[in-house]
Amino acid sequence: MMLPSNLMLISMVTIVVGTNRGNSKSAELAKFYEKSFNEKEISCQVLDLKVLPSDFIFTECFGQRSEQYAQILEKYVINADKFVFVLPEYHGGFPGIVKSFLDSFSGDLIAGKHAALVGVSSGRAGNLRGLDAFAGVLGYMQVEVLANRPKLSNIEGVLKGGVLANAENLAKVEKQILQLISII
Ligand SMILES: Cc1cc2nc3c(=O)[nH]c(=O)nc-3n(C[C@H](O)[C@H](O)[C@H](O)COP(=O)(O)O)c2cc1C
Fold first, then answer.
1. 10-49+57-182: which CATH number, 3.40.50.360, 3.30.70.100, 3.10.20.90, 3.40.50.1820?
2. Which of 5, 20, 115, 171 could form a disulfide with 50 if both were Cys (CB 3.0 to 4.6 A apart)?
3. For the residues 8-21, what does the mean pLDDT come to?
């Protein structure tokens, strides 16, 4: 039986690269997630925050909205029901730009949706603190955050040429992807 179109189960995963740094390891990991979703025939799209207008913190927050930015929100936030946030560790936490991105739109656009978080760091913590803090922010925005949050430390050593070499990390990430997919 066909579901009425307004009840049809659509699923689109937006993978957010939580930094605007060029050639980031976070972007490389986002591509890994994209490839994995594609292999499972799950629709997904990557939003690298480096593509946001460079002045969006001033021009797109607090009620102002350009057509260009509205289209970004439409495509990557409104039309998605699941999110992966790839969060690099900067000074012991998540980068400010990813919080500014959340602050640039109403929480209504993301409330009730689901998110998976993954931490990335050069050092040993895998952005443990940043993951916890970001989960708190999303929780406030009524986003359902998966409890399974892989922490990928020593990222330069374990992610090379888009390949996640470390078997333990690979298993954690694949498990998380399957958990996100299985949410209806
Ligand atoms: C501003 C800044 C602060 C950083 N602070 C930390 C840190 O506190 N701990 C750490 O392990 N790595 C830190 N790093 C290194 C990043 O974790 C590293 O670049 C890693 O590849 C993830 O960031 P990326 O996605 O920008 O590549 C920092 C990098 C930048 C640019």
1. 3.40.50.360
2. 20
3. 88
Instruction: Give the position, in ligand 1's atom list, of the atom nearest the Cα of 92.
Output: 8
* pLDDT (tens digit per residue) in 69-116: 999 999 999 999 999 999 999 999 999 999 999 999 999 999 999 999
Q: How many other CB atoms are found less than 10 A from the CB of residue 126?
A: 22
Instruction: Identify which of 82, 109, 112 has the alpha carbon closest to the alpha carbon of residue 179.
Output: 82
Distance 122 CA to ligand 1 centre (A): 6
**Enclosing H/E stretch for 114:** strand 114-120
- Please check the confidence at residue 180 and state whether its pLDDT lies above 50: yes
CB of 24 shorter than 6 A to ligand 1: yes
- Structural domain boundaries of the chain? 10-49+57-182
- CA-based diameter of the chain, in Å? 53
* Residue located nearest, by CA, to atom 28 of ligand 1: 90
Q: Which two tokens stand for residue 167?
A: 């078997």
Q: State residue 6's pLDDT score.
A: 43
